[in-house]
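Reviewer 2 asked us to include a model.

Predict the structure of this chain.
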Amino acid sequence: MPRRTSAVTVVLCLVAVIVRASANPVPLVITVVGTRSEVAREVGRQTADRIAARLGRSDIQQQILPFLNTSAGRIIFDELVNRTARDFPQYLEELHSLAKGSQHSFEHVFVLNALQELTSYPPTEGSSSPDRRRRERASVASNKRRATSSRCTDILTQPYEGELGGFWGHNEDGGVGDRELNYFVNATIFGDEGQSPPGRASRRVVVERFMAYSYVGTVAGLAYGWNGHGLVMSENAVFNKVSNYRNVPTSILGRAVMAMRSIDDAISLFRWHHGSEACNVNLGHYPSGRLVTMEVDPFNYTVSVKEVFHWAGQAALPGLRQSPYFFIHVNFFQVLQSPSYTDVSSLHRLATLAKYHAPNSTHDIRRMLGDTSDPQYPVYRNVTADDDCQTLTTAVWDLRIGTVDIYNDNPATSHAVFAWALRLD
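Predicted model (structure tokens):
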């Protein structure tokens, strides 16, 4: 019987080219091949110190872990784990393997994959009911807490009428210190091809191939990435006023997107499986060039899907120049009429971008995503007195030729640190 091989880490990522040095730390790229468990375990092994650093931060130590020691916190945590086990057992397996590889507890690793869900219910003295905690989130304090954690901007455009194959840019915004901890995962996952005849070993086949920018300790798909089927995705937080902790964490749905074969498959995923927090998911495909933006409301089980090419769209703000081939998304509902918290940074970012004409090139998108003209709440974020977020990386896709450039500094004034082909052969 053939010996089962362990995960193989490729030191040099052949599909990536380092184009230029960066003023900021260039993200680690982990290229790994193996079964689902082997890949996750190896990622955990390589990022164990980073996971420890993230778990040591005050938000987890002073808020989330104490909350898990309350009856309400345990109910919500167990609901999230049980729903994940029911709907996506393969990704729960990945989290168990990641925990083993990093030598951190499964509970702590799962916390990293449910931060938005668990911070939706801040502990309050004398409150033990999850329903009561949900109502408490409508308070001013909760509003402020959520607004200051806002993140990400997307610009999608199909500039040429009658053609598919547009441009798309994404600012991945996060907290101070996230840039040093996050990384790319370049994964090839093998599985067995059904039942083999007696006496013959199962043939191992590739079941997933993807590249994703990942927050430390999380499954792929929470930020942005693309897969071997030509599907590209990015995700933006939307701060809905009512959550649904009886659904799976949003991170798990993002991971499931990385396994989808088409945009339509990804849309169906969100129609059939519901996340616990709202989100905006942007989807593209190469070589078809199709672009879609989608909003998801988990409490009302509502999904809005808009084709960028076909949508004539209303302006999100007075004066915002939207064309049938151009859409901007930030961190609140812009299509659905569901209630969400007012995010001051998002309002400012949209107001700044309203000054631009619809972009016709990746250069235009880079210039827009790198705008710092608003000193309080710039589009390219770098921690101001009013805004505690920073832009970690910028991804700019060209779906006409199938490429993505990654910027580690302001994309308007710097060169890409990585250039990738979307084909993951």
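The mean pLDDT is 84. The chain has 14 helices and 16 strands. We have added this to the supplementary material.
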